[in-house]
Amino acid sequence: MLSIRSLISAACVLPFVCVSANNGQPSYGGSNCDVSKATISGLPASLAQNSSSPLSPSFIAVALGTQNYTCSAAGNYTNIGAVAELFDISCFYGQKLFDESQDIAIQAWKYAPSGMTPAEFVKQAHVSQWVFGQHFYVPNPNGGNTTNPEWNFVSGNRFNGNPDAYVIAARLASAAAPTGSQDIDWVHLKNVKGSAAQEVYRTDTRLGQPPASCTPGSAPIQVRYSSKYYFLGSTLQ
Ligand SMILES: *[C@@H]1O[C@H](CO)[C@@H](O)[C@H](O)[C@H]1NC(C)=O
Ligand SMILES: *[C@@H]1O[C@H](CO)[C@@H](O)[C@H](O)[C@H]1NC(C)=O
Ligand SMILES: *[C@@H]1O[C@H](CO)[C@@H](O)[C@H](O)[C@H]1NC(C)=O
Ligand SMILES: *[C@@H]1O[C@H](CO)[C@@H](O)[C@H](O)[C@H]1NC(C)=O
Questions:
Q1: What is the per-residue pLDDT across 4-27, written as a single tens digit (0 to 9) for each?
Q2: Smallest Cα–Cα separation from 58: which of 236, 233, 237?
Q3: Is residue 111 part of a domain?
């Protein structure tokens, strides 16, 4: 019987990567396509841009990763960060593959061996060369003891080696996922530092929610999720 590990490496578990590989775009995979006219499907009104000249999308990525939670003294989980691997799906905008990319990602990722990190998963699936970037948390660049989410493309397939290819952001607004309470919120964020985007949207979330309660003092947990991220108003060339 095939182990899950060998299934991951044998099959094309992430078709949005394999299709781009087969399309003869070895340098960029699903990226380097103009999505400036793209709209965010199903965006809750409360997350709309507050501007008379809204920013245009520059790149759209799908992520697979974990949301990290710690157990509070009140006995519920508080989000303390996340880690994820990102794939640029800009070139598939308007196609079924684009619409379903977060479902494809979570289906492959949720059955991966427990304890496997997103980085190990992309390595086992032999798709590391198609990775657009990583998502993780960093100390607030403006000081204080808070952390902020970052999306970093410096070691990715498109902006490799470009030290400006990242964005650290802060939350402007969030809204419950239209797909139900099993999925984490959709979020609108604003640039704090970096050139990769002026605004970021997390949309089309799948899973990532913690259990409703926990035992105070218990260890932090990681919950797998997938989503899309829209990066707006990038100044990267
Ligand atoms: C939208 O922008 C206006 C004008 O800058 C500001 O007064 C208002 O507070 C903003 N609303 C939100 C929800 O950010
Ligand atoms: C955790 O429980 C406290 C006390 O009931 C509540 O105020 C808080 O909003 C809860 N936090 C989360 C993340 O649900
Ligand atoms: C989240 O959990 C991952 C392990 O899956 C860990 O590598 C990462 O440092 C954690 N990040 C935060 C901010 O908790
Ligand atoms: C962060 O700073 C605030 C205000 O100074 C303080 O109340 C809080 O306990 C600090 N949190 C941590 C985790 O150090």
A1: 454 454 456 787 777 655 554 444
A2: 233
A3: yes
103 inside domain: yes
81 CB near ligand 3 (under 6 Å): yes
Domain that holds residue 77: 4-39+46-232
- Residue closest to 77 by CA, chosen among 164, 198, 184, 178: 184
Number of folded domains in the chain? 1
Q: Where are the alpha helices (DSSP H) in 15-100?
A: 15-22, 96-99
Cα 176 to averaged position of ligand 2 atoms, centre (Å): 16
Tell me how far the alpha carbon of residue 82 lies from the centroid of ligand 3, in angstroms: 6
| pTM of the complete model | 0.89
- pLDDT (tens digit per residue) in 109-155: 999 999 999 999 999 888 888 899 999 999 999 998 899 999 999 99
Does 237 fall in a domain?
A: no
**Is 25 domain-assigned?**
yes
Ligand 2 pocket test, candidate residues 68, 71, 72, 174, most atoms within 8 A of CB: 72
